[in-house]
Amino acid sequence: MLHLSFYPSGRARGFTLIELVMVIMLTGILAVISSDFMRRSVDGWLAQSGRSEMANAAAAASEKLGREIRRALPNSVRTFRDGGQNCIELVPVLYSSEYITMPVASAASQFRAVMFPSGVGGERGYVAVYPYSSRVVYGNGPFRGAAISTSLATAAAPASNEQLVQLAATEQFPSDSPRKRFFLVDTPVAWCEDGAGGLWRYRNYGFAADSRGLIPTSGANAELVINNLLPGSFAVEVDAAQLQRNAVVRFSFSLLRSQRTGNWLGTGGEQTPLVMEVQLQNVP
Questions:
Q1: Out of 103, 136, 210, 247, which could bridge 241 as a Cys pair, Cβ 3.0 to 4.6 Å?
Q2: Model confidence band, residue 13 (pLDDT cutoffs 50, 70, 90)
Q3: How far apart are CA 136 and CA 57, in angstroms?
């Protein structure tokens, strides 16, 4: 007689030790592969984010410096080294127009000018007339050159497309501008690196033939623009104006993104160089 045996359909079945070990090994292999894939993805995202951050910082700093150079008083852009670090200095132009009268032959405390483009009055700054060289902008001695007034000037409200510009003291300029042009300018500003990864913008230190030693190193007049500059990478060249073209300023610097285990001042990280040329559009 044939006997058949079977297990009830609802009865649970186990697995062997070999099957358990294989499952554990496969799970471990999958975990290692997944973690390595995730690590590479995260590292790639962090690297891309860091590069984007450096590119944005470089673009913002170069645009700010380039804009100031474009607005600079003619022949006021110059370079020097302060404490062994490279600097660029310039005189910002606030307003410009053409004058009708100007105290050249004799001293006076006011002059007539064509209305400023703003046309509201109250424009204020130092008066600059025919700044044909840095010597007449900054001067040979400790004071400013003869092309810039020693006192502030304020423009009155316009009348019949003219404005009366009032000087705080009596002034006399050495020569007329061939195009009857004058500028209202601010005091000089300087951009310098500090040798420790910082690029700074300094202001309110006054006019001087030699600005070394006058740059404020702290306070409200010192503005940190970049804090991850590659030390020693900030360089500036000024090509003087010629008959065929205006003056050109070329500056360059590199930003440094440190390795994850390093620091901002090391040289083993990733570098982002930047080179920019700016044409000085203003003429005396």
A1: 247
A2: low
A3: 36
- Specify the 3-state DSSP secondary structure of 282: coil
Strands 181-185 and 124-129, bridge-based pairing: antiparallel
Two structure tokens written together for 167:
């000087």
231 closest CA partner among 262, 266, 203, 277: 266
The strand order across the sheet containing 222-226 reads 78-82, 85-90, 189-193, 199-203, 222-226
Half-sphere exposure of 53 (CA within 13 A, CB side): 13
Check residue 21 and give its pLDDT.
78
Indicate if the pLDDT at residue 257 is higher than 80: no
**Phi and psi at residue 259, in whole multiples of 5°?**
-70, 160
* Residue written as token pair 């500059």: 229
Closest CA to 131 of 151, 150, 153, 147: 147
